[in-house]
Amino acid sequence: VKTTVVGIGNVLLSDDGAGVWLVHRLLAGYRFEPEIELLDGGTLGLGLVSHLSETDRLLVIDAASTGSAPGTVVVMRGDSVPAILRATLSAHEASLCDLLAALTLLDRTPREFVAIGIEPQSLAPSIELSEPVLHALGHAEHEVIGQLAAWGIACESLGVASKTVLTL
Amino acid sequence: MFRGMEIVLRNRDPREAWLFAQRICGVCTTVHALASVRAVEAAVGAAPPLNARLIRNIIAGTQYIQDHIVHFYHLHAFDWVDAVAATKADPAATARLAQSISAWPKSNAAYFKSIRDKVKAIVDSGQPSLFANGYWVHPSYRLAPEANLLLVAHYLEALDWQREIVRVQAIVGGKNPHPQTYLVGGMAIPIDPNSQAALNMERFDQIRGLIERAKAFVEQVYVPDSVLVASHYPEWFTYGAGHRTYMTYGDFSEPSTDVAAYRFARGIVRTAKGMYVDRLDQTKIAEYVTRSWYAYPDERTPLHPWDGLTDPHYTGPKPPYDFLDVDEKYSWSKAPRYAGEPMETGPLARLLVSYAAGRPDVKKAADAALGALKLPLGALSSTLGRVVARALETQLMSGWLIEWLDQLVANVGTGDLRIHDGTFWEPSSWQSDCQGWGSHEGPRGSLGHWIRIKNEKIENYQAVVPTTWNASPRDANGVRGPYEAALIGTPVVDPTRPIEILRTIHSFDPCMACAVHVLDPNGQLIVNVDADRGAGW
Question: Residue B458: what are its φ and ψ, rounded to 5°?
Fold first, then answer.
């Protein structure tokens, strides 16, 4: 059973890159058993298809504009994902929906799918996250670890003060 | 869009310039590394050995194949292909159509039925997905449902397939995107037939397998599909020409190093004046910023890249805005001109210049395609001419890749394992003041890097990229760039859904989020077109 966690977004557009920043925090801060794949999906868009086509369980972290307060973390599971995304849409255009549709058309839909969205405050050109989104990373990280644990994956913290780990 | 990589490069060691320059783009990966090492080599006098030049060609050639296939299927196809209409196709008739144009083995009715049913499920669900942002059911679509289904199926196959060919870059470049084995004076990858840790016969065979599979996909899927689309839109061989002035720096002379041996010839062709090639003199290139958001001491005088300046100076309206005033500065792109003239660069320019220069393989490929489409040579100066030229050069490139690999294996077989020439590696071997021009024909067109080195450091660095030529704004004399010129005379059936404009802009393969603003004769904005629509790349 292959498990993949992918963060997508543009780190040059402040909070759009929240998912990517979180993946790098997870890479630096944890050891996973059994091993999982953690991917910096960046702005690859449909280019990610080939990286995700072998995965059984897919967890995507992305900026999601739901109209809630900046930093709000939403968790979407299974069939509810497309329905929720239809209403919210990912913050960048090469959307998660495109990716899911492509995987479906190629008969590579992951058996289990979870999306964690973080409400952005700013999408302006900057490599800094806004305050509320920076704070939300801890909450989103908690959700990711919780989901992985539910999938039977042990997440061993390496003791790195995760708040300080924010480098690519 | 402004990147400012030229500013980053100032005062750095010229030998590391390619590592930074390569990051100008994440899609046109590798091309800037190649142009950069060539610029430094030209400046300091370094001469990379044959093995290194062949490996560079193999990286460049695989880039062509991946880039052009992704462009055709994933960035351009839906300008011609109606994915929604594909749901009405008869799978058996689609299989017959596919078998009539190609021997590709996947073409059976059951396969097309499964694709059609899946596309239908997605379209019916109304999800904002792959097929949500097209101009579906537009009167400008001309293909039968079966042709639409065939192309949607190949869109999906290409999505899955395109990762294969770039594995070549991982083998000889360490990774993709942005291979890491370039080096001023050669490449940083050992060749040793007796080592598992170096390029050996096993690796060469692996590369050969990847190239041969790519060649089959190009010949049996990409080229026939391009001709299929082209044959249904004959009027698009009459729109989109623009200035009809074409420029190529030329490239790929191996085993020779002679410009005259370039497989893509170097030169200038102005088809309105006939099919002959004028010699290219790079010192006649200069960039205007009269209509660009940069500052020059004298805004009406263009600068050659060796003397070029990158001084961003935004004077446009505060975004979001509805209009840009083309009588003022209105673009982040400078306006390069050759001897004062705008030039189109890219696959069509390469095809026309090489054809006029009498390159036999280019001429043969072009004549065969024109014969199949029953079109004269002049029809290639058009929107669809670019699409066909891109497919034809991908086919040529897949054959050249095998030739380069054969040359490499044969040369290694003679016992020549040289991969780097260190004669001019140490800065102490350089002249204290030197300058160089590195050119490369990348998938999108003619790419040039210009460098000035002073006291072992970069004094000035300028990159003039293909899209800067094609997308350039007006110059001091008010002359339009190629995109703008190509759009003149294009009919737009429905101004709120201007698919016709996308067809022409996409035919250039723009390397930018290209905002096109369409105005009606009274200056009212009709619509903004984002040429990156649905791209995801």
Answer: -75, 120
User: How far is A69 from B18, CA to CA, in rounded Å?
Assistant: 43
Q: Quote the CA–CA distance of B127 and B130 in Å, as a whole number.
A: 9
- Residue type for B226, please? S
How far apart CA A120 and CA A75 sit, in angstroms, is 15
Chain A residue numbers touching B119 (CB-CB < 8 A): 105
Confidence of residue B516 (pLDDT cuts 50, 70, 90): very low
Residue of A nearest to B123 (CA): A101
Residue B113 C-beta-side C-alpha neighbours within 13 Å:
6
pLDDT band at A167 (very low <50, low <70, confident <90, very high): low
Nearest chain A CA: its distance from B106 CA (Å): 14
Residue B269 burial by CB count (10 A; 0-12/13-18/19+): exposed, middle or buried?
buried
Report whether pLDDT(A168) > 70.
no
Token pair recorded at residue B344: 């189109």
Kindly list the distances between the CA atom of residue B459 and the CA atoms of B3, B282, B285, B313, B454, in Å, as whole numbers in the listed order. 18, 20, 20, 21, 6
- The region of weakest confidence among B294-298, B345-349, B408-412, B530-534 is B530-534
Name the residue among B130, B162, B532 with its Cβ closest to that of A101. B130
B440 DSSP assignment: E
The answer to whether residue A109 neighbours chain B at the CB level (below 8 Å) is no
Query: Which residues of chain A have a CB within 8 Å of the CB of B127?
Result: 82, 85-86, 97, 101
Comparing B304 with B121, the larger pLDDT belongs to B304
A10-A14-A19 Cα angle (round to 5): 55
Distance between CA A134 and CA A154 in Å, rounded? 25
Q: What's the CA gap between A53 and B162, in Å, rounded?
A: 13
pLDDT on residue B517 = 38
SS3 A3: strand
Q: Minimal Cα–Cα distance from A99 to chain B, Å?
A: 8
CA–CA distance, A47 with A49 (Å, rounded to integer): 5
Quote the CA–CA distance of A153 and A71 in Å, as a whole number: 26
B47: which residues sit within 8 A by CB, 6+ positions away?
A: B41, B185, B257, B421, B423
**Has residue B357 got a pLDDT over 70?**
yes
Rounded-to-10 torsion of CA A131, A137, A142, A146: 140
Q: Which residue of B has its CA nearest to A104?
A: B118
Question: What token pair was written down for B56?
Answer: 């560079």
- The closest alpha carbon to B207, from B368, B404, B415, belongs to B404
CA–CA separation, B443 and B394 (whole Å): 9
- Whether A106 sits inside 8 A of B160 (CB atoms) is yes
Report strand pairing: B186-187 vs B182-183. Answer: antiparallel
Q: Beta-carbon neighbour count of residue A69 at 10 Å?
A: 10
| Structure confidence by residue, pLDDT tens digits, B156-176 | 999 878 778 889 999 999 988
ipTM above 0.90, yes or no: no
Minimal Cα distance from B160: which residue of A? Answer: A50
pLDDT at B281: 98
This prediction has a pTM of: 0.89
B443 to A36, B182, B210, B391, B488: CA distances (angstroms): 36, 19, 19, 11, 25
- Distance, CA of B143 to CA of B82 (rounded, Å): 8
Q: Measured between alpha carbons, how far is B248 from B239 in angstroms, rounded to an integer?
A: 22
